[in-house]
Amino acid sequence: MNISYNWLKEYVDFNLEPAKVAEILTFIGLEVEEVSTVEDIPGGLEGVFTAHVLECVPHPNSDHLHITKVTVGGEPFQVVCGAPNVAAGQKVLLATAGASLPTPDGVGFKIKKGKIRGEESLGMICAEDELGIGDSHEGIMVLPEDTPVGIPAREYLHLEGDTIFTIGLTPNRVDGASHIGVARDLSAYLKYNKLGGELHYPQADSIEAGEGTAVPVQVDAPELAPRYMGVTLKNVKIAESPEWLRKKLIAVGLRPINNAVDITNFILMELGQPLHAFDLEKIKGGKVVVRRAAEGEKFTTLDGVERTLSDKDLMICNVHEAMCLAGVFGGLESGISDTTTSIFLESAYFNPTTVRKSSKRHGLKTDASFRFERGTDPLMVPFAARRAVALLKELCGAEVVGQVQEFYPEEMEKKRIELDFARMEALIGKKIGAGTIKELLADLGYEFVSSTEEGAVVLAPSWMVDVYRECDVVEEVLRIYGYNNVELPERVTSSVNSTPSPDPEAVRKRACDMLADMGFMECMSNSLTSAGYYEHVKTYPKEKLAIIINPLSSDLNAMRQTLLFSGLEAVSYNLNRQSSDLKLFEMGNVYSYSEIPAIENPRNDLRCYKEEMHLSMFMCGKGTQYWRNAVGTGNYFALKGYMETLLRRFGIALYNLEYAPAPADLFSEGLEYKIGEKVLATMGTVAPARLKQFDIKVPVFAVEIRWNLLLKQYMKNKVLYKEMPKFPEVRRDLALLLDESVSYAQIRKAAFAAERKLLRNVTLFDVYRGDKIPSGKKQYAISFVLRDDDKTLTDQAVESAVKRLLEAFEKQFGAALR
Length: 818
Prior knowledge:
Layout: E1 2-4, H1 5-9, H2 18-27, E2 32-39, E3 48-58, E4 66-71, E5 77-81, E6 91-96, E7 100-101, E8 109-110, E9 114-116, E10 119-121, E11 123-125, H3 128-131, E12 142-143, H4 153-156, E13 161-167, H5 179-192, E14 217-219, E15 227-234, H6 243-251, H7 259-271, E16 275-279, E17 288-292, E18 298-300, E19 306-308, E20 314-317, E21 322-325, E22 329-330, E23 343-349, H8 352-362, H9 367-372, H10 380-396, E24 399-407, E25 416-420, H11 421-428, H12 434-443, E26 447-451, E27 455-459, H13 470-481, H14 504-517, E28 521-522, E29 528-529, E30 546-547, E31 558-559, H15 564-575, E32 582-593, E33 609-620, H16 636-649, E34 658-661, E35 667-675, E36 678-686, H17 688-693, E37 701-706, H18 707-716, E38 730-739, H19 744-754, E39 759-768, E40 777-786, H20 795-813, E41 816-817
Parallel strand pairs: 14-17, 28-32
Antiparallel strand pairs: 1-13, 2-13, 3-4, 3-6, 4-5, 6-11, 6-12, 7-8, 9-10, 15-23, 15-24, 16-23, 17-20, 18-19, 20-21, 21-22, 25-27, 26-27, 29-31, 30-31, 32-33, 33-37, 34-35, 35-36, 36-37, 38-40, 38-41, 39-40
Helix pairs in contact: 6-7, 7-10, 11-13, 19-20
């Protein structure tokens, strides 16, 4: 459940930072699983400022680039710009070096100092689409002449940010499945702790009857729909929702559709009451009937799937046919469309068991069913209807027709609970006083029927579906009073075991099992090694070895700094015994020494020593020959594939990593995979000088992963799920003639910058140098996958996207299409 910090502040008076609010929510039983920031533009255009173009001259080495002098209020500096409309005197938006601009993949495009065609460029003058505020890429965005210089883009463009709390609701806390629900609990805590917390419910005036006759409601299954309310509205103008409403929905993860539908979704997230709007023109017979489905009845839901109903399903129908699976999912034919002018608005309370079983029976999980099956607040039904009607009038120009139709034959009473304060304090484990109990319950919405110093009779709030007994009320009191405020007794007889989550040992075992499944054999070697291996090695200098004071032999006189040498020992041992096709791995600790100036006798102080776990992998040989496959060669790319598969398995996003050449003293070719400045993994072909130390005469390929860093990243990883794409992808393959200096990473970045909306994936599948390829050139064969998440792509849209890509490659890299 996503809860907006800004949205909460509309209902509760407080002045607390988001981090403190998250702490309080978890404290009172609404566990915040994640705190994230939502911005109008990802990154908030940090590092982008309004600027003044002082000079603009043609680039001496290009027919379309310009060299400009710009200022953001300080010393002018040089920026190379390719926009055709750049000119001296303009006010523009400038991304300075270090700024990150939004990209479709969410990674961001970082602006760096560099040279373009031999001229230094210290930033980028931006177009609308590069800033993520529009689609135009015809030229840079020119600001009014009176625009002040040096204003952050966030401030100039009035960009807003929000903090989203992801709350892990337990099944009994459906009262927290709305902003008002969370606000009620937060208000109670803040009031008790004298931090403000006045609660403000949204305004919802009574619905006055309009002219005409409303659509009548007939409920044939009152046990399944104890309360049902319907409002008929006309002159509804379907349009895009206002910006404030769209932003609220997007912040909590909902996609805006149109003003009418967005209002029902807004009420759902605000009050926790699901609403449903029907197109009045599609209610055949002019009457709404709430009934059980006929056994075997067919019904096509909004997703286009025809479903066979059970007589246990509750349906919202017109005179002739079903329109909606009550509390679960709407029908294909009855929903709101762009041509809708009149609607029937439904606000109801459905039997939770019925909704849960229907949802499970048909495999449909929706925001509405999530709430109905756990038990919504029956007293919220009229309030939600009034709130929705007020918004429909305001945003859609709607007018009420006739009287509100309501079926509510038997008033649903609040649960009556008798309390004994002494018994409650015994359960709490502390005497907190009858006054405190009464104060907390009043703040939580409990009504007192009677009260004495010894006890009370209360009515539980209608939204608290799991409160039936005194012990349930004790839990409510403790949530706000604070379990941490109940002191532990002097003597505790229980034992508590703490296990990290995820369990590091379980994760380590999972990695080892995965490598074993890939065909690797695990080896175990001694942590003691020869200091001689580290002679003339800059990456792991001999000065940083943990030296053994009384070694058993000169070959075991130091603690290893890396698993590379012990792995090469294992490779050499096996090669000398005619076992030439090797795939080995080892998980083990490595050790290093680092002198701390403030410590006397540092070699004798444990604080100067560091121990961490590494994972190594080794490959060599041609592989075993079988009748169905040819003999291959263990190679760089095979090991790279194994390693990257392992990294992805443990949540490492490879496209977020930085890359650098592997240390030349250890590898003749290879890569370092870096998270910021920290090296996560190193892989490549072991340098001949290192192989010679172990008398190895065949190529060996090795990987070393810093396991502690990998485990730390894995613990941060959150597994996310999203719906499979509904619309097909389109693939286009391009053969590009490029300079040797152009890398695939540059091509990929430029592609996502040029086509932000449709491009989903870029893959290099062939590199060619040779016949008919000029010297200093190479051919990249690259596939581009395009998809629109909202509709099927047309040929015109695909060709336009490919054209934008080609233009970008030609402009930035001088690429030619072969």
